[in-house]
Design goal:
Elements: E1 2-6, E2 11-16, H1 21-34, E3 39-43, H2 50-64, E4 71-75, E5 78-80, E6 87-91, E7 96-98, H3 108-113, E8 121-125, E9 128-132, E10 139-142, H4 145-160, H5 168-175, E11 181-183, E12 189-191, H6 197-200
Parallel strand pairs: 2-3, 2-4, 7-11
Antiparallel strand pairs: 1-6, 4-10, 5-12, 7-10, 8-9, 9-11
Helix pairs in contact: 2-4, 4-5
Length: 205
């Protein structure tokens, strides 16, 4: 069985620094143009280390949500692709759905640079793809309480372990092994930034 989801009606939180006025204006135009009805900003957490600040911001969003309903978490540098659709059919047993992703770890050597044991794994599951060790966190739809809490705790653990890789997307990538985490064949969102556009503008299929 599948649940039919209209992304415009999903609770959506966009992580954004208060001082990033240009990015905030861009997200307002984007989500307003798409017709999103229930979205808010989460003020990004300042840190001398941007990796830590990003992780703390994602942890903050997940901590503040009670998971009585799904939650779409976006970062403020996202833009839609031509594959974007407001409507999507998701299996009832899915724990999360990636609407954007990165092909950084699709190569084993790059995966090991991020302290992961092997490259990203994908397998067809109906109209979607089951993913493992898939990096990126810029457009994730959290569907179950157990996964949302596990994602929060995994990111906390990575921050507290100084010998580990503190990138929150790596923490999530490793967690995917234990849950039914899916991705759309064509990415709905990519990141517009010098560091990530190259890696996030590529589809699984």
């Amino acid at each position: 069985m599948n649940m039919e989801v209209d992304l415009r009606k999903i609770k959506t939180v966009c992580i954004s620094m208060q001082k990033s006025t240009n990015r905030r204006d861009g997200i307002k135009r984007l989500l307003g143009g798409l017709g999103y009805e229930r979205w808010t900003f989460f003020d990004g957490i300042e840190s001398k280390d941007s990796v830590v600040g990003c992780a703390l911001s994602h942890i903050g969003v997940l901590t503040s949500h009670d998971f009585s309903e799904p939650l779409l978490v976006l970062e403020d540098d996202v833009q839609t692709t031509g594959a974007y659709s407001n409507d999507i059919s998701i299996p009832n047993d899915a724990d999360a759905l990636y609407l954007g992703y990165s092909w950084w770890a699709w190569d084993g050597e790059r995966a090991r640079q991020s302290l992961m044991p092997s490259a990203t794994s994908i397998s067809k599951q109906g109209d979607l793809y089951r993913i493992k060790r898939m990096t990126s966190a810029h457009a994730v739809l959290y569907l179950t309480k157990k996964y949302g809490e596990a994602a929060r705790d995994s990111m906390k653990s990575y921050l507290e372990n100084p010998s580990g890789n503190r990138h929150c997307d790596v923490a999530l990538a490793m967690l995917q092994e234990q849950y039914n985490v899916l991705a759309t064949p064509k990415h709905y969102f990519f990141q517009i930034c010098e560091r990530n556009t190259f890696w996030t503008y590529k589809s699984i299929a």
